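Notebook entry, structure prediction.
Reason for the run: the old model in the group folder had no record of what sequence produced it. Starting over properly, with the input documented here first.
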Amino acid sequence: MEQTSPYESPSTNDSSPGGVSVPGRQIIITKLKATNVATGLRRIPAGFYVSILIGNDQWKTTNNPVCPTSGVAEWNDLIDLPSDLSAKLNIRIYASFELGYTLGQGDLLRKFAITVAELLERSQNSRPIVFGPREQEVVSSCSSLEVTLEVCSPSSTVVVCRPVATRVESRLFDELFLAQTTDIGHNHMHHYYKDHQKSHLDSAIQEFKRVVDGCPSHHPARGAALSNLAMAKFTSCQAREAHIDLDEPIHLYQKVLDCRPPGHPDRPSTLFNLSIALLSHFRGQGYITVADADEGRNY
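New structure, fully documented this time:
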């Protein structure tokens, strides 16, 4: 299997299907499977999704968690592709930090461009797209993506995903602000993980605070906003070895739990993050008291 840069178009292959279109036939993505999606990530995602851009239309798969034993993420969303085999698809794989209400796009893992013909040839020959290590990274997330296509007669019984643009008529300015500001914060965190410049952490905290300020107590995104700020604050404390300041991210994670009652899809990940923050705090103090142990049992 040849390797493909995540930021370049895969090389063409002489065995790609001939012709420029398949008139009267429907080309559908029936399954996507990504391997090692969580490998090398500094923050544990809640789920993963795939975005496919065709012209001005965008499709998004469901946000699915990764299999804990295999490290594989799978999507069975049905996505209708153009019958024009020369049409270009822009495919992106994202890590999401919420399974419930999400803020922003998440962390971009891989992106590449490919034609329908190339993708069809790979599907027919069971050839996944294999990614090489990304620049300045020893271990990169998502080592391959396998896409399964089906060519069939048009059928009204096949329920395919609708483009995002037709699924959401409009977004309020406030929602766009929250999403875009969250993405800016995640981008600063990404830069910090690459060069360890604390200024990126400070910028991320500033952006995440703006998002929290824009999410009052009744807002459905408040839990996600508080969680992002808690994560950045925790990372900052770790970077500065300021264990005494861990009270702040711990308090933030406790507030996140209030937004995510039992049964909420993101409550387990919140409990996990809170446990890590509590353990780091107690280790930084050099001891664990009975009161600390009682507090841990309360969660």
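Summary: Residues 1-16, 166-170 have pLDDT under 50 and may be disordered.
The old model has been moved to the deprecated folder.
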